Amino acid sequence: MTWNHELKYYYVDCINKLTKMEAIIAKFSVEDYHKMIEAGLLIYRDVELINGLILEMSPEGTEHTYIGETLADYFRRLTQGIAWVREARPITLTQSEPEPDIAIVRLPHSLYRSHHPYPEDIYLLIEISHSTLKFDTSEKRNTYAAANIQDYWVVDVNNKQLIIYRSPINGLYKNETRLSLDSQVSPLAFPDLNIIVNEIFNR
């Protein structure tokens, strides 16, 4: 009887200690992630790897899809022969493998037969943000800054503005610019290309 009484308090003490412990999150490397994909563990799952965590991607609404498709097509015409435009395809960073809505990367296209684009291959990343603005301007922003992505744009669908992040230093972007519809901007890699913000939303 005494033993049971002591055991009861032992269990209670253990439970109290467990409730005070911080949650331990298992993180995966890019190599782990690739092995899961090859093994078919993530088949039919719409996911991406962000800083070691496998995250479900939000479904696209019609406006998100429309803007993404038309903007990607616009950039294809502007950069034909000088860059390759990828839509919702992976890029490989040190601890992440996100799938930005648009990635403008260096040629030749055959480079990506054996691997996804690395940071040094990337001219410009663009995320179309409708319901994901907070994530794209915090976690995604910091992920891209840490990878030294020089030019990152967020198309803010709800507020009809373009947010531009540049000059990554020590894992953070030094420069943030918010452009309204009547503004123009050029990608860092292609200063001769003038993008009118209004055309992003009203093409």
TrEMBL record:
This is Putative restriction endonuclease domain-containing protein. Residues 45-195 form the Putative restriction endonuclease domain. It comes from the Bacteria. SUPFAM superfamilies: Restriction endonuclease-like (SSF52980). It comes from Crocosphaera watsonii WH 8501. InterPro entries: Nuclease_put_TT1808 (IPR012296), Restrct_endonuc-II-like (IPR011335), Uma2 (IPR008538).
